[in-house]
Write a structure and sequence with these properties.
This protein has 234 residues and is an alpha+beta fold. It has helices spanning 17-20, 28-31, 114-123, 125-150, 154-169, 182-189, 193-205, 221-227; strands at residues 2-3, 35-39, 44-46, 55-60, 63-68, 74-80, 85-86, 100-103, 107-112, 171-172, 175-176, 209-212, 215-218. Strand 12 and strand 13 form a beta hairpin. Helix 5 packs across helix 8 and helix 6 packs across helix 7.
């Protein structure tokens, strides 16, 4: 990974936890301590089970976080973009990362060490309160997702995944703004690559999606949402 110079004051990611709290006087001494670097596409920067090295914040780029499941298969548990936080699972309660993380494209990351993050949590109450709310929201999302996935068939899980990616990363020129392989879609949907290929083929024939090479575009999101509305699509 290559060191990169980033400036929090010029960062445009208003959803970034650090950026949100730059106005606080207590935060100023911590900003200069952060490390920033560029991670190339497909490069892993967090290894599951490795000692925790603080929290990462995406300055620019896209990242997938993974968790090793049964038979050693990696399952994608989260897809993230500019301003999102990486490595928070287990932070403060574990000495090792509970997930792994890979760059999905050339990505610029900011990192605050364990020591600095713990100091911030002790000394900046507003930051600590907001982080607590973030954890509560993430826990609620995880619980809802587990309940939802348990009642979905394969087609519904693939549709739910495509809608999530569309919602998270948007669509331009008719295709979703994130390149994922069919295997990665399967890893996120909790199914097999073969099943994903079959479902995508069916959705294309039904004119609900289109494919431009490996890229996918949703052509009828309303109809796709209707298919999974009984699972309380959000």
């Amino acid at each position: 990974m290559k060191e990169e110079l980033t400036t929090c004051s010029s960062c445009i990611n208003e959803n970034c936890f650090i950026k949100k709290h730059l106005h606080l006087e207590q935060m100023k001494s911590y900003i200069d301590r952060k490390r920033s670097f560029t991670c190339k596409k497909s490069q892993q920067f967090i290894i599951e089970g490795a000692p925790i090295q603080g929290l990462y914040f995406i300055y620019k780029g896209k990242v997938k976080t993974v968790k090793t499941g049964i038979y050693g298969r990696e399952q994608i548990v989260r897809l993230t973009k500019d301003g999102d936080t990486i490595g928070f699972r287990g932070f403060g309660t574990s000495k090792r990362y509970l997930i792994g993380a890979y760059a999905l494209e050339n990505t610029v990351l900011c990192n605050f060490s364990n020591e600095d993050m713990l100091e911030i949590l002790h000394n900046v109450p507003e930051f600590t309160f907001d982080l607590m709310l973030f954890y509560a929201e993430e826990l609620n999302k995880s619980e809802n997702n587990i309940r939802k996935i348990a009642h979905m068939n394969v087609r519904e899980r693939v549709i739910d995944t495509l809608l999530y990616i569309h919602r998270k990363f948007g669509q331009s020129n008719g295709v979703i703004g994130l390149d994922l392989s069919r295997k990665e879609i399967a890893d996120f949907a909790g199914t097999t690559e073969e099943q994903v290929i079959r479902v995508i083929s069916s959705l294309k024939k039904e004119l609900l999606i289109k494919a431009v090479g490996k890229k996918i575009g949703l052509t009828n999101t309303d109809k796709l949402k209707l298919e999974i509305q009984e699972h309380k699509y959000l």
